[in-house]
Automatic annotation (TrEMBL):
Species, as recorded: Acetobacter tropicalis
Residue ranges crossing the lipid bilayer per the database entry: 57-81
InterPro entries in the cross-refs: DUF6118
Keywords tagged on the record: Membrane, Transmembrane, Transmembrane helix
Protein name from the UniProt record: Uncharacterized protein
């Protein structure tokens, strides 16, 4: 090393500097490549997120369209199917335990006074069922004409 000239020392320093510079440049290029790779991955993730967001909007739109079509078609389908299906659907919607009670509830809501008369008339007929049956039998035996019959009417309760 004592035999080296100043030019040789300068050349050695220059070579060491170039070598270090090339190592730094290679590391920098590698870092740039990694950053670009990560940027591409992020762009892909963002693209997927946008695509998924678009799919969510499509699902919401299709769901709402199906709901509207279902609501629009259900009365038509109930009309086209046999009547027992329509009354079962109505009973389900009303929420009573059977179709009889559903119908009674709908009549009571639609016309409370009329429904009260139906109930009172039904109770009157039920209380006099035997007498009415006997009277009908007697009327059918007498040349099928009308016959007067006596029934029991309870006092009005308040």
């Amino acid at each position: 090393t004592l035999k080296m000239t100043p030019q040789a020392y300068g050349q050695g320093i220059r070579q060491a500097g170039l070598s270090a510079s090339q190592e730094i440049q290679a590391a920098f290029q590698e870092a740039i490549g990694e950053v670009q790779g990560e940027r591409k991955k992020l762009a892909h993730i963002i693209g997927q997120s946008r695509h998924q967001d678009r799919q969510n909007w499509w699902l919401l739109g299709v769901g709402l369209a199906c709901l509207v079509v279902g609501i629009g078609l259900s009365p038509v389908m109930a009309y086209l199917l046999p009547s027992s299906v329509g009354t079962r659907v109505a009973s389900f919607i009303v929420g009573e335990k059977d179709r009889w009670n559903s119908g009674a509830m709908m009549m009571a809501v639609s016309n409370p006074e009329g429904w009260q008369r139906v109930r009172e008339d039904s109770q009157l007929v039920e209380a006099n069922r035997d007498r009415i049956a006997a009277c009908q039998k007697a009327a059918s035996g007498q040349e099928k004409s009308q016959k007067s019959c006596v029934i029991t009417v309870p006092a009005e309760q308040e």
